C-alpha cells in the first residue's frame, strides 16, 4: 500500500511558475514508476509527465520544454516544476504511483492559471 500526498498548487498568473510535490509512504518507493496527471473541469484526466524507476521521463506534448518531472528516492518524493504557465494548464493535478497491477493516486491539488 502506498499513500500519496500532493502539495504546492495554487493560483498563478500566466507566465509564472509553480512547483508541485508528492510525498509517498512505503519503503519500496524506488521501484515505482511515478507520474503526474491532471483533470480540467469537464474533461478527462490526462497524463502530464512520468518518470520510471530508472529515471526515464516522458511528457505530454503540450508541456514539453515547460514542465520538468523529477524524483528523489531517498526522500520518497516526486516533483513537477511548472514554468511558463498558461491558462490551459488550469486543472486538478494528481500524483500517481504504478508498479505492475498496483496503481495509487493522491487526492489532487488545484492549479489555477489566471490573470
Task: Output the keywords.
115 residues; four-stranded antiparallel β-sheet; mainly beta; globular; seven-stranded mixed β-sheet; 52% strand; single chain; 11 strands
How would you characterize this protein structure?
It is a single chain. With 115 residues, the protein is mainly β. It contains no helices and 11 strands. The chain has strands spanning 4-7, 10-12, 18-24, 33-39, 46-51, 57-59, 67-72, 77-82, 91-99, 102-105, 109-113. A hairpin with a 4-residue loop joins β7 (67-72) and β8.
Number of strands: 11
Per the principal axes of the C-alpha atoms, what is the gross shape? globular
What is the oligomeric state here? Answer: single chain
* Count of DSSP-assigned helices: 0
Q: Could you tell me how far the N terminus lies from the C terminus, measured between alpha carbons in angstroms? A: 40 Å
Helicity level, as a percent range?
A: under 10%
Low-confidence stretches: none
Instruction: Give the percentage of residues in beta strands.
Output: over 45%
Radius of gyration: 13 Å
**Helix/strand order, N-terminal first:** EEEEEEEEEEE
Q: What integer is the average pLDDT?
A: 96
Structural class: mainly beta
What is the makeup of the main sheet?
7 strands, mixed
